[in-house]
Design a protein that fits this description.
The complex is a heterodimer of chains A (255) and B (554). With 255 residues, chain A is mainly α. Helices cover 69% and strands 0% of the residues of chain A. Chain B starts with a strand and ends with a helix. Classes of the chains: A mainly alpha (255), B alpha/beta (554).
């Protein structure tokens, strides 16, 4: 199984300047969180889907379809039953609408994050963060987390197997009992993560990370016409959604 | 000319430690030399490596005294970041040394940090990749590389920075024989180009080729001399917790002085002084055993679509000691994980005493087949030793008295005395034995162990293998996955060799190491004592065997 979220390709999205990728992502996130009406979110969803196709990232969404289904179902159900204040567990149409809107928004956010990770290498993210004013050390450390995720998933699978061999079963008992069963898995994962992080910090030090010496950059990113197009589109999208929000047209119409 | 690296009265004590990790070490590493450092766990090997790169005391806290010089100039006041590029250090955990999304980015990382002009980077990347045999890998994702390739990539990442000295702390411990051979070949080539290398390693045969062999014992230099002298001294090696070379042990056993490092020369000497070996007409062989585990037509395909096992059929007898060998990716672990239902067959079936593993409840399986994973840290989680061991029996729903009985029994079997000890503070060997105890507490008939001796020093290895032998003699069926030929030769009764998902060999140990059709399999390369015996016309599996054959009047 390939766990790295990056899709090695040279699509127009891949060729954008790292700063454009990150700024475009932020613009779309802002747009998604400004409006509540499902109808207003649909064009955005269509746009993100088109971008996913363009960046060849649809397969990543397909791999994680279960997560999207779960997020959607759980969000809709929870809001439907808990939206009405003072009357919990009474399903309401308003709650349902809000739930649908929130679910679309969360799914969009997840999809946009996957899109960003599919078209931008972690080095590009670090570079973009630096160009956007985030200190290099902070930006780089953030991107390291992405690299570690697949390693920890691997370790978790092994640990889960090891504990199953000692008779650990997750399927039985009440919720608290089940939760407690995760301790034998979480402790080794956590300790392994700490040890790995310690080694990694040493390895970074050995290669001069944070040594106070002047840095150079291998990555040569130049903005081109594609970036101009992308920036214009992103700007137009944000402006549209700000207008929808300001005019109240993006608000939920509650019965 | 000044030495590449020099330690003068160097002492290092970690913060909070009662004992110095290095005590008054004097050592000079000549320019362009290969120095191999050996010693038991805790002797100070890693501390030495970390001090050379100033990781200790700048990163891991400790107090150091004495002087440390690089090319004649003291570095006792430098930060690791300032030395980055001058001293490269590689360690065992290869995953932790890679942080980039492709190979090129990995190599330029250190160059960026140390301000190398971008125009120079491509050339350095190509040169470093060529030096480690990874030319053409520029655009690969490091996550897709094998362990050996990852470790060579980590070496290249440091090489690109053009260090004067490279320190390697057990770089091959977690690699399979092929990966290890590749890394050692790279090191030999770097040495030929004049790079100074300090290598920490467990294998005396690697040390045989060094310019200088350093034995560390309790933080002190017990010996620092050309390898031939150190490797001949069986007593000194054993005192230092290092497994002596087979040839040295044979010579010591026969009371012969000055063992040569070369097998042909050793054979000549033995021929001259002992005469032909007296091989008994009937060699000890494993008794026949009633069948316990039956694997029939087993095929396994992972989600990725590759067949990891294709049509494997084998029967394992009750009370057998089986070694499961083969290259990485040959299907060893996949087969082992079918024995206790961790994996389900794509086709075929596995039965234990006639019952199908696929339909057996987890509880029953856990009591039938115990599985000890390679890394004990993948299963230890409890605050104390006894809690850890009690976890399995409690999962079975046993009452307090029964759990207690099992904990006592399992801890006695593995020789762990302090029940309230913190498992995370135990050394690696003890943690490995604790992992075995925690599985033994389920009283399984079969014990499967995945590379139980990896990363242990000679004394700990002997302890672990002694434990397995005792369990075997008490009637347990043992299946061990291993890459180490002498473990197979000395302990197993039968060997299963997997190649490319198929069973390539199934039979006795002596026949296995003598089979000329298996010459392309690293696992079938006999231990030195067997190769020495061959030159004398016999096939011994252990040093004791060869010594007794040579001693008896022939």
């Amino acid at each position: 199984m390939r766990l790295s979220p990056y899709v090695p390709a040279t699509t127009p999205l891949h060729r954008l300047h790292p700063v454009t990728k990150v700024a475009g992502f932020l613009a779309l996130v802002v747009a998604a969180f400004l409006v509540d009406r499902p109808l207003c979110l649909l064009p955005l969803a269509a746009g993100v889907t088109a971008l996913l196709a363009l960046g060849r990232a649809l397969a990543r969404i397909r791999q994680l379809r279960l997560m999207f289904v779960l997020v959607t179902v759980v969000t809709v159900v929870i809001w439907t039953f808990f939206y009405q204040r003072g009357a919990p567990l009474h399903p309401s149409a308003a709650g349902f609408q809000f739930g649908v809107a929130t679910a679309i928004r969360l799914d969009l956010f997840l999809a946009m994050s996957l899109l960003l990770l599919a078209v931008a290498r972690v080095e590009e993210l670090a570079y973009a963060f630096a160009r956007l004013g985030v200190p290099y050390v902070v930006g780089f450390t953030l991107t390291l987390a992405f690299r570690l995720v697949p390693v920890f998933i691997d370790a978790s699978i092994t640990i889960l197997e090891a504990q199953r061999c000692r008779g650990l079963e997750f399927g039985r008992g009440g919720p608290l009992v089940r939760l407690r069963r995760f301790v034998p898995v979480l402790v080794p994962v956590f300790i392994g993560a700490l040890r790995r992080a310690d080694h990694m910090a040493m390895a970074l030090e050995l290669r001069g990370f944070n040594s106070g010496r002047p840095r150079t950059t291998f990555l040569r990113a130049r903005a081109g016409w594609r970036d101009a197009v992308a920036a214009t589109l992103a700007f137009a999208t944000v402006t549209t959604y700000v207008t929808l929000w300001a005019s109240g047209a993006g608000a939920l119409v509650l019965p | 000319m000044s030495a590449a690296v020099e330690l003068l009265g160097f002492t290092c004590t970690y913060d909070g430690a009662t004992r110095a990790a290095l005590a008054g070490v004097d050592l000079a590493v000549p320019r362009g030399a290969l120095v191999v450092v050996m010693g038991r766990s805790g002797a100070g090997k890693s501390t030495l490596a970390r001090c050379l790169a100033r990781i200790v005391p700048c990163f891991v806290r400790g107090v150091v005294s004495g002087d440390l010089r690089l090319g004649g100039a003291t570095i006792a006041d430098r930060r690791p970041g300032e030395l980055a590029g001058a001293v490269g250090m590689v360690f065992q955990d290869f995953e932790a040394q890679l942080f980039s999304s492709d190979v090129t980015q990995e190599l330029v990382f250190g160059l960026e940090q140390t301000g190398v002009p971008p125009g120079e980077m491509r050339a350095r990347v190509h040169a470093a990749l060529a030096a480690v045999g990874l030319a053409g890998f520029e655009d690969r994702d490091p996550a897709t590389l094998s362990g050996g390739e990852k470790q060579r990539l980590a070496i290249a990442g440091l090489l690109a920075m053009r260090p004067a000295v490279m320190v390697l702390d057990e770089p091959t411990t977690d690699l399979d024989p092929q990966g290890r051979a590749d890394v050692l070949r790279v090191l030999a080539a770097l040495r030929a180009e004049g790079l100074t290398l300090v290598l920490i390693d467990h294998d005396p045969l690697t040390a045989a080729d060094a310019d200088l062999l350093v034995l560390l014992e309790d933080g002190r230099v017990a010996a620092a001399a050309p390898p031939a002298a150190v490797l001949a001294d069986v007593a000194a090696l054993e005192r230092a917790g290092v497994r002596p070379p087979d040839v040295s042990r044979v010579f010591a056993g026969l009371g012969l002085p000055a063992p040569p490092l070369d097998l042909d020369a050793a054979a000549d000497r033995l021929r001259a002084s002992c005469g032909p070996p007296a091989v008994p007409p009937v060699l000890p062989a494993a008794p026949p055993r009633p069948p316990l585990i039956a694997v029939q037509g087993l095929r396994h395909r992972y989600a990725a679509g590759r067949d990891a096992l294709r049509d494997v059929s084998v029967t394992i007898g009750r009370g057998e000691f089986v070694a499961l060998v083969g290259r990485n990716g040959s299907g060893k672990t996949t087969l082992a994980k079918h024995l206790n239902g961790l994996l389900r067959p794509t086709a075929g079936r596995v039965t234990i005493a006639g019952a199908d593993v696929a339909t057996m409840p987890l509880e029953d399986l856990a009591q039938r087949v115990g599985y000890v994973f390679q890394d004990p840290d993948h299963q230890l989680f409890a605050p104390s030793v006894e809690e850890e061991v009690a976890f399995g029996p409690r999962n079975l729903g046993l009452d307090g008295a029964a759990v207690e009985e099992r904990v006592t029994e399992a801890l006695a079997a593995v020789g762990l005395g302090d029940r309230t000890a913190d498992a995370f503070l135990l050394d690696k060997g003890a943690r490995q034995r604790l992992a075995v105890a925690s599985v033994l507490a389920l009283r399984p008939e079969v014990l499967v162990l995945d590379e139980p001796t990896t990363g242990l020093d000679a004394a700990e290895q002997a302890r672990m293998l002694g434990l397995l032998r005792r369990l075997h003699q008490a009637g347990r069926t043992i299946v061990v996955i291993t890459h180490t030929p002498w473990v197979v030769a000395e302990y197993a009764e039968r060997v299963l060799l997997l190649a490319d998902g198929r069973l390539r060999y199934d039979g006795g140990i002596r026949e296995f190491f003598g089979d000329p059709t298996l010459a392309d399999e690293p696992a079938a390369r006999p231990p030195d004592v067997t190769r020495l015996g061959r030159r004398l016309g016999c096939t011994p599996l252990t040093v004791d065997e060869l010594v007794s054959w040579l001693r008896s009047p022939g």
